[in-house]
Each structure stands twice: as C-alpha cells, then as structure tokens.
Amino acid sequence: MGYLIGVTALWAFSFSLIGVYLAGQVDSYFAVLLRVTLATLVFLPFLRPSLLRGKHRLALMGLGAIQLGVMYTFFYQSFLLLSVPEVLLFTIFTPIYIALLDDLLFGRFTPIYIVTALLAVVGAGVIRYDGVDSGFWAGFMVVQGANLCFALGQVGYRRLAADLPPTLAWHNVFGWFFIGAMVVALPAYLLFGNSAALPTTSLQWGVLAWLGLVASGVGYFAWNQGATKVDAGTLAIMNNALVPAGLIVNLVIWNRDADIPRLLLGALIMAASLWLNHWWCQRRQVAVS
Predict the structure, then answer these.
(1) I need a labelling partner for 75 at 20 to 30 A (CA). Which of 90, 117, 140, 192 fits?
(2) Angle 219-227/2-17 helices, nearest 10 degrees?
(3) pLDDT tier at 83 (50, 70, 90 boundaries)?
(4) In the predicted model, is pLDDT for residue 128 greater than 70?
(5) Mean pLDDT score, 122-141
(6) Torsion of CA 203, 246, 67, 207, to 10 degrees
(7) Is 222 exposed, middle or buried (0-12, 13-18, 19+ CB in 10 A)?
(8) What gap in Å lies between CA 30 and CA 234, rounded to an integer?
(9) H-helix or E-strand containing 79?
(10) How far apart are CA 245 and CA 135, in angstroms?
(11) DSSP string, 163-193
(12) Is 122 within 8 Å of 162 (Cβ atoms)?
C-alpha cells in the first residue's frame, strides 16, 4: 500500500505538468518516446537477462508494450478529441476494468471488488463531472482504450509475479518492461510524429526529463510492485485516488479553480470504498482461519 500511496503523490504532479507545459506545444509521440527512453535508461544498468526465462521476458515486454506504449498512445491522442475535464472524467472507469480483469486472469469471481470499484468511480465522478459535449463519443472510446491498457498491464503484472519466485530481484529484470514499451513508442513516433513540434525551452526539456526518469522510471516500477502486494479491490480503488490528489496539487501550486465541497465529498466516498474493501478482506481472513 505504501508503494501505491507514494506513487499517487508522485503522479499527482504529472497531469498538471503535461497540461501546463507540454499539451498542444510538444509532439505527443515524441513526448511518449522520450519518457519511455529515459525510463529504460534508468533500469538498463541493472538488467540481468539470466534471471528470467525467455517466455517470462516476452511476457514482461508485452506488459510494458501494453501498459506504457499503447496506453500512452491512446491517452495523448485523447486530448485532441476531448477537453481536459472530459479526459479526467472518462479515466474513472479503470477500477472496474481492474476488478473484472483480475478475477478473469486468476479464475475467480469476487462481487465485493465490483462494488468497491463502482464506489471509487462514483467518488471520482462526484469530483470530476463537469458535463460533456454531444460529440464526445470518439474521445470516450479512445480514453477507454487507455484505461483498458493500463488495467491489463497492472493485472497482468500481478499474474506474472504470482508465477515467479517471491525472491526475484525485480529491479534486475524490470528493464524488459520499458524495452517492450520502446517497441511501441519508437515506431509510433517514426510513423506519426511531428519533428517540427519538439521541445523549444529548457523548461519543457526539464519537465520531460522529470516525467521520464522519475514519474515513468521510478513511478511505474514502484506502482507495479505495489500492485503485487495488495488485493485487487485496493488496487482498483487506488487507481482513482489520483483524481483528488491531482486536483489538490493543481489547486495549491497552479491556483486553478476547484470545487472544494465536491472534492471532499468525492474523497470521502473513495475513502469509504477503501474501508469497505479492507473490512471485507479482514472478515474473509477471519472466516478462513
């Protein structure tokens, strides 16, 4: 849980940094490529190929390709179709995908996870809903593509970790995750990127460096490690904790307007979903013992 809370605080800054300094100014495909490249460089020195069998390497690369490469491609394109509030609103469905995919991959059905995930969606919706335009459906589907990729990457990582030794030094193999993302990000930039829209200021380069080295490099490693240490319900709920966290950062640092009562109400609803999930997990443990 500590991993997820820490990364939530870290990623809370990313939305504002992208929206203020990069969106509409720097080519999105280049931004994705540079983030993935820098994150790869963080873990490349630690990579020990002998620690993973071939099929596990390919699995980890596939997860990186989906969770980072394809997800970012969808996510950045959504800003061309939707307003920022609409993009944020439509990301709140990720917990439902996590709950359903986790049960599917682990061969079970856990109704309480669906209930708590829906509560997290309601809480995030209370915070972010500002109304939508009539022509938003294409953008909605693009965001759902990003949500599904992010959810599948997290749940797939949990499933892969369950098949590997608990003593595995993940920092010595996680480079494969970013190499997989590179397999998507590099061709995407070469095919669709705009070389005339590269960063032009040191601030933009600095933001991209932070996003690549810290938010992507350290962030995705810590988040996926956290995903293996909690139950699916908690993971689903924490995916929407970014909404209030991001709004708080935006309000405090960039002084953007925020509806404080709605922010507090939505945060309370998500806290209630976490409490309900924790209560159910404790009750299940007592019943098993």
Answers:
(1) 117
(2) 140
(3) low
(4) no
(5) 69
(6) 10
(7) middle
(8) 34
(9) none
(10) 29
(11) TS-TT--GGGTTHHHHHHHHHHHHHHHHHH-
(12) no
pLDDT value for 276: 77
Which pair of tokens denotes residue 201? Answer: 């200021």
Provide CB contacts within 8 A for 195, sequence distance 6+. 27, 30
Contacts for 279 with CB less than 8 Å, ≥ 6 apart: none
Measured distance CA(64)–CA(83) in Å, rounded: 27
Distance, in Å, from the CA atom of 23 to the CA atom of 213, rounded to the nearest integer, reads 19
Q: Fill in the DSSP letter of residue 52.
A: S
The answer to whether the beta carbons of residues 204 and 22 sit under 8 Å apart is yes
Residue 84: C-alpha distances to residues 1, 69, 143, 188, 262 (Å):
28, 21, 11, 23, 18
Q: Would you list the DSSP string of 82-127?
A: S-HHHHHHHGGGHHHHHHHHHHHHTT---HHHHHHHHHHHHHHHHH
Cβ atoms within 10 Å, residue 54? 8
pLDDT in tens, 234-254: 888 788 777 777 777 777 776
Rounded alpha-carbon distances, angstroms, from residue 87 to 15, 91, 147, 161: 11, 6, 11, 31
Q: Find all residues with CB under 8 Å of 102, minimum gap 6, and list them.
A: 113, 155, 158, 232, 235, 236
Q: Residues 7, 179: contact at Cβ < 8 Å?
A: no
Q: 231 φ, ψ to 5°?
A: -80, 165
HSE value, Cβ hemisphere, 13 Å, CA-based, for 70: 19
Q: What confidence tens digit (pLDDT) does each residue in 133-186 have?
A: 655 678 778 888 998 999 999 999 999 999 999 899 999 999 999 999 999 999
Calculate mean pLDDT across residues 190-218: 95
